[in-house]
Each structure stands twice: as structure tokens, then as C-alpha cells.
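Folding Task

Wanted — backbone structure
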Amino acid sequence: MSLPPPRLPPVFRPTFNAIREGTNCSIHPTAQATLKCMCCSNFMCPTCDFALKGGIHVCPNCAMSSAVQGLGPRRKRNVVWGYVLASIATICLAALMSGLMAEYFIGMNETVAGLVFSLFTFVPAAIGFGASSSACERHLPNPMSIKGAIIWNGLLLAAFMALTIIGNLS
């Protein structure tokens, strides 16, 4: 007859947010903290724990803030810049590929033409990709608007790379 494995008390079970014994809640100083807020990293007791979708645990202050309920001002600004820069890169890429800019490139050195192409397509797409990627939060929900900006700028970067490779092979 084998003995079952010993059960550890809840305090000693390893968890993602393991809190040391003696750490108190930031709102209730007399209560033992059991979790750490995933937004502000404050310690919280079971009374203060707000469990959101996806196993996200936040304190009452963060649960009421706009950062959890929607996009905060920093995230909104980065998403808007991601879309603005993707639009600029798309318009410039379409103008260059359709021949609207052909008369400006006649007699131009290939290196200079490549730099102009890079300046008006690659640079805005790369900066837009960085701005929209920085709006992603690992511990917060990311709406489709953020993913759309990342995908759009990523596709522009992929198109630029493909055209660069094709241009260098021919």
C-alpha cells in the first residue's frame, strides 16, 4: 500500500504570483496578500482581487481605470500613429508602384531612387509597426484595432522586403 503524496499548504504551492509570507495587501494593511496586481504590481488580498478574462488578476484601482476597461491614452496614441503611418506608407507605395512618380525617377541614380523608395515606404511602415506593437499589453486585453495596425504595417514591411529582393535579383 503506497501513501499519497503530501499536500502542501496553499501558501507553499508554487504559482505565477507567489507572494511571500508576511506581505500585506496595499489597500488592507492588516490582511495577508495573496496575489499581485498584473497592471500596477501592488499586493492584494482575496477581497481586493478582480479576476478578469484570461486569468488576469487586478486590484480595484486598476479594475476601475480606463487602462483595463479600454485603451488608455498612451495605447490609443500609439494605435492612431500606427494607422497614420500605415496610410502614408500605403499611399506612397501605391504612387510609386502605379507609375505616378515615374517622371521624377527618370535619369535618377538607382541608389538614390532606392533611398527615396525606402524613405517613403519602409521608414513609415517600420515606425508604424513599432508604434502599434508598443500598444500591445501582455496582461491586458488587446482589441482588434491594435492587431489590425500591426498586421497592416507588417504586410507593408513584407511587401517592401519582397520588392527589395526582387529588385536586387533582376
The helical segments are 60-64, 66-69, 73-98, 102-105, 110-134, 144-169. Residues 73-98 form the longest helix (26 residues). Residues 88 and 124 are 7 Å apart (CA to CA). The radius of gyration is 25 Å.
